[in-house]
Design brief:
Elements: E1 2-8, E2 11-16, E3 26-35, H1 40-46, H2 51-54, E4 59-60, E5 65-72, E6 84-86, E7 97-98, E8 106-110, H3 112-118, H4 138-157, E9 164-168, H5 172-183, E10 188-193, H6 198-204, E11 208-211, H7 217-223, E12 229-234, H8 239-246, E13 249-257, E14 274-277, H9 287-295, E15 310-312, H10 316-324, E16 332-334
Parallel strand pairs: 4-7, 9-10, 9-12, 10-11, 12-13, 13-14, 15-16
Antiparallel strand pairs: 1-2, 1-4, 3-5, 3-8, 3-16, 5-6
C-alpha cells in the first residue's frame, strides 16, 4: 500500500509499505479521505519542537482520516463491514513509526468497546475512533475530528451562554472554535486572523473579525467588549499572541493557549487576576454533541472543505502547498480507490 512518510524534516514522500496486520479486536479499513491539519501536520513535517522530540523520522503522517471497515477480527462485536470510522490510521510498520498514520491507503480500527467489556487493556486511547452515521460521507467525517477536538477544549475552558470570547487564529481550528463558541451560546465571538479569512470567520460564527496586520487591530479588539473578554483562546500558541490575548481579558477571565508555535517557551506575567487553562481535551466526549450540532445545521463543512479541489495521496505535497499559500483552509486528500 501507499503511505505518506515524513523521511526527514521538511521531506514528505509517498512510498510503498507493507499493509498492516489486524488482530482479534481490530478491523481492516480502507482509508477513504484525510484532511490536512495546518497545525499538527505542518509542525510534524517541518520537524518543529516539541514534535521533533516526540517523533523521529521516518513516520507515517495524518490524524484526520476516515476509514471504511472491510474485514474484522474474531473478537470484534461493535464494528462491521461498511462502517465508516473516524481517526483511523495504520500502526507502525517495519521500522516506520506513525504520526498517527492516517495518510495511507489501509488502516486498522479498534473495537475498543469489546476490549473494555472483556477487560482487555489498551482500549482507552482508541475512543477517538467513532462510527459515523451512514448518511454522513467520509469527507464530511474528517471535519468531525476537528469539531470534536475543539468543542471538547471549548467546554473544558468554560465557554458558556452570554460570555464574550476572543479567538486568535483563523486556520481550521480557529474557525471551529468560533463555531463552537456561538453554538454554546456565546454573546460575542471576536476572531483575529488573516484578512482573507474574514468571510469564513463570520460564516463560522464570529461576530467580529480583526485583521492581525492592521495597525489598530488590538485597539479595535479591546474596544469591542467593555471590560474585556471572559475567555481567550490562542489557537497559534506563540509568545506574542498569548500576551496580546491576555491583555484583552477581563479581570478574572480565562485564557487557553491551545496552539504550539512556541510550545514550552511561553511565559505569562502576573499582570492581573486570571486563570490559565492548562488542560487538554477528549474528542470522544464531544462526539454526540458535535453530531447534534451538525444535524441542526450549526456546523457547515463547506466553510472548511473545498470539494472542487481534492488531492490524491500521490499529490499530498500539493495539498500542503495549497495550505501554506492559504488557498485552502483544510485540504482534502483522497486516500484509496473506494468511491465515497
Amino acid at each position: 500500500m501507499k503511505a505518506a512518510i515524513v523521511e526527514a524534516a521538511g521531506k514528505l514522500a509517498v512510498r510503498e509499505v507493507p499493509e498492516p496486520v489486524f488482530g482479534d479486536y481490530e478491523a481492516r479499513c480502507e482509508l477513504l479521505y484525510g484532511a490536512v491539519c495546518s497545525g499538527t501536520d505542518t509542525h510534524l513535517v517541518q520537524g518543529h519542537p516539541p514534535f521533533c522530540h516526540w517523533l523521529k523520522a521516518p513516520f507515517i503522517l495524518g490524524h484526520e482520516s476516515v476509514g471504511e471497515v472491510v474485514a474484522v477480527g474474531g473478537k470484534v462485536r461493535y464494528l462491521k463491514p461498511g462502517d465508516r470510522v473516524t481517526r483511523v490510521g495504520t500502526p507502525p510498520l517495519d521500522g516506520i513509526g506513525i504520526g498517527w498514520g492516517g495518510f495511507a491507503e489501509v488502516g486498522v480500527a479498534t473495537d475498543w468497546r469489546a476490549m473494555q467489556e472483556d477487560g482487555v487493556d489498551g482500549w482507552a486511547g482508541m475512543t477517538v475512533q467513532q462510527i459515523l452515521p451512514p448518511d454522513i460521507d467520509a469527507a464530511t467525517g474528517t471535519m468531525f475530528i476537528t469539531w470534536r477536538e475543539t468543542l471538547s477544549y471549548t467546554l473544558r475552558l468554560g465557554v458558556r451562554e452570554r460570555c464574550n470570547v476572543l479567538i486568535v487564529g483563523s486556520g481550521g481550528n480557529g474557525l471551529a472554535f468560533a463555531s463552537n463558541a456561538r453554538n454554546l451560546g456565546a454573546a460575542t465571538v471576536t476572531l483575529v486572523g488573516t484578512a482573507t479569512r474574514a468571510e469564513a470567520a463570520i460564516a463560522a460564527g464570529a461576530t467580529m473579525f480583526a485583521d492581525y496586520r492592521a495597525p489598530d487591530c488590538w485597539d479595535k479588539v479591546r474596544a469591542a467588549v467593555s471590560g474585556g473578554y471572559d475567555v481567550a483562546i490562542d489557537v497559534l500558541g506563540s509568545q506574542a499572541t498569548a500576551l496580546a490575548a491576555l491583555a484583552s481579558l477581563r479581570s478574572g477571565g480565562t485564557i487557553g493557549v491551545y496552539g504550539m508555535d512556541d510550545a514550552g517557551a511561553i511565559r505569562l506575567p502576573a499582570m492581573q487576576s486570571y486563570t490559565c487553562y492548562a488542560g487538554g481535551y477528549d474528542e470522544a466526549e464531544a462526539h454526540d454533541r458535535v453530531l447534534s450540532f451538525y444535524r441542526a445545521g450549526k456546523l457547515n463543512p463547506a466553510i472548511w472543505l473545498d470539494r472542487r479541489q481534492v488531492f490524491s495521496l500521490d499529490n499530498i505535497n500539493d495539498a500542503f502547498a495549497a495550505l501554506r499559500q492559504k488557498h485552502l483552509i483544510k485540504p482534502l486528500v483522497k486516500l484509496s480507490g473506494l468511491d465515497h
